[in-house]
Design goal:
The protein is of the alpha/beta class. The protein is built from twelve helices and 13 strands.
Length: 363
């Protein structure tokens, strides 16, 4: 089997972070001489149209000439070739998009879902609702309760304002959902060391499950100290967007994270390497579930084959992320999501909707 063509389509979508505004997503297709096609819908849209278009141009202008005529099943070789021409950030998401297309092709060729190809560990996993931020503690608590009523047994907060506002919202949410619901806190790398410690102490009192990215990921020493002095598990590395597994090694060797985060949109090849590294150090690897259908399905496949993953992150409101897909991921009555059963990624894209939303195509 040989790769015969690569196509990038830029489409317009609703901006999940700013209701009423438009964003940009990318639909990528890798074609083969056997008629098997890898499809990926990914984006950096909420953070700017420029970066989304850069992803498409990177894939078509840089990676397409590199992989045309190659066997798409040689994923490790093709991944290494692309990484050698990359430097992290947005370009790494371009690597990830091609990598996911190749895994999609491999699964379709084998007639198996990706998580089974990687060695299935589970058929379902507990989900938590990953929430957008609101203007007040009451609003955050009300939305968390709405998610619990929907069936979730865990909620994760992303908050606005000062650290004191964050603590107030964390308290309001815990009081609203009670002790039977797991609560997670994402600081998005915004604190200095003193503030991170203050917030961490409060989250311990509130029995939060983990404390995510309290410091910039560049502050490895600060993260190591937090891991030593706090009882609540500290997670890090979600926002690194690095290109090699070795970039994650210092956090493991220096005990600078209790739970490592990675992103399946960077590619399953990289994410699985990172998860296996974490397993060797006996720590959890919890992949980010952000993004449209492809990111959600890729994350779920990763969770399905990694024994050191405990939760699946499901973005809410879900309808803002389920664009252009006919079979969105849903939680069951017990708050679990089930692994995809279709071959490859298992995503059933609505090609007619994609065509209606198309802004430009690069080939």
């Amino acid at each position: 089997m040989k790769i015969t063509d690569v196509k990038a389509t830029v489409i317009e979508v609703e901006n999940a972070y700013r209701p009423g505004q438009k964003g940009i997503s990318n639909f990528f297709q890798v074609f083969t001489d056997e008629g098997i096609e890898g499809r990926v819908l990914t984006d950096r849209g909420p953070f700017g149209e420029f970066r989304s278009r850069c992803m498409s141009q990177t894939i078509v202008e840089l990676f397409k000439p590199m992989i045309i005529g190659r066997d798409p099943l040689d994923r490790e070789l093709l991944w290494e070739m692309m990484v050698a021409r990359s430097f992290g950030g947005t370009v790494m998401f371009a690597v990830g998009a091609v990598d996911l297309c190749l895994w999609d092709i491999a699964g379709k060729k084998a007639g198996m879902p990706i998580y089974k190809m990687l060695g299935g560990y589970r058929d379902k996993i507990r989900a938590y609702a990953s929430l957008l931020s609101f203007d007040s503690p009451r609003a955050n608590a009300d939305y968390a309760m709405k998610m619990v009523a929907k069936g979730y047994t865990g909620v994760k907060l992303h908050l606005r304002g000062t650290y004191k506002d964050h603590i107030a919202s964390a308290k309001a949410v815990r009081e609203a959902v009670g002790d039977g619901v797991e609560c997670f806190f994402d600081a998005n790398c915004r604190y200095d060391r003193r503030t991170a410690l203050i917030v961490g102490r409060e989250l311990e009192k509130l029995n939060y499950y983990w404390y995510e990215e309290p410091l910039p990921n560049t502050d490895i020493e600060g993260l190591r100290e937090l891991c030593q002095v706090l009882d609540i598990p500290v997670s890090a590395t979600e926002e690194m967007f690095h290109v090699q597994p070795a970039h994650y090694t210092p956090y493991l060797v220096q005990h600078a994270t209790d739970i490592m985060r990675t992103d399946a949109l960077l590619g399953i090849t990289l994410a699985k390497k990172v998860a296996d590294m974490c397993d060797a150090f006996h720590i959890k690897c919890e992949p980010e579930g952000w993004g449209p259908a492809t990111g959600q399905f890729a994350t779920l496949h990763l969770a399905g084959c990694c024994r050191n993953t405990e939760f699946y992150e499901h973005m809410e409101p879900a309808e803002a992320y389920d664009v252009c897909v006919k079979n969105p991921i849903k939680i069951d009555k017990d708050g679990f999501v089930h692994m995809p059963t279709g071959p490859g990624l298992g995503v059933d894209f609505d090609l007619e909707e994609i065509n209606r939303r198309t802004v430009m195509t690069l080939e």
